[in-house]
Input
Amino acid sequence: MERNNFYYLFAGLVFVLAIEPWLTLFERGGAAIQLAFTAILVSGAWSLRRERPAVFRTGLALAAVALLTSGGYLYTGWEPLRLVDLAAIVGFCALAIGATLDEVVVRPSSITFNRVVGALCIFLLFGVMWAALFTLVESFDPNAFHYAGPQASDPMEHFLYYSFVTLTTLGYGDILPIHPVARTLAYLEAVTGQLYLAVLVAGLVGRHIAGLSDSSADA
Output
């Protein structure tokens, strides 16, 4: 995998999450958000092109589907295009998470800062993937969630917020899962977020600091 490749993916994800509130000011802001995330994920697939050509080709195909359908939905507003786009984003996130986990955790090598950043990318990808899943659930059942306040014009807008609130177990209570599938997804995301931060990221950071200390001692 290319050196420092995770830096670009992490910066892109943070950038899109930061501008997400401003995209919601436009008509069909949810489609614009999906389009922006798809563009970022394309860059993530591109970083795998040398070490993981098979994963790269699969990811590029999913990203192409997401890019075409999100662009088509942004232009036409045809609902089936949005559903296909969401499914492609979920598949792409799952593929990227698996490939990054293999690179960051499974493959034996020294713990570099790039690998720590890769672990943080996975955490952000979890949030994006679950937001797309929540949006899909509400697309099939509009009563799957209860809202204590006004709803956004596009579900993807408020489910990005809800996903990261759930992933970090903040739980403000302004969006409540009602449907059994929605509830299951919510608690699975909460458990995943806590276990991931407590076990994997903390372990990687600890090993990275230990490696720096050993290098200093040897010097």
Remarks:
- The two ends are 28 Å apart (CA to CA).
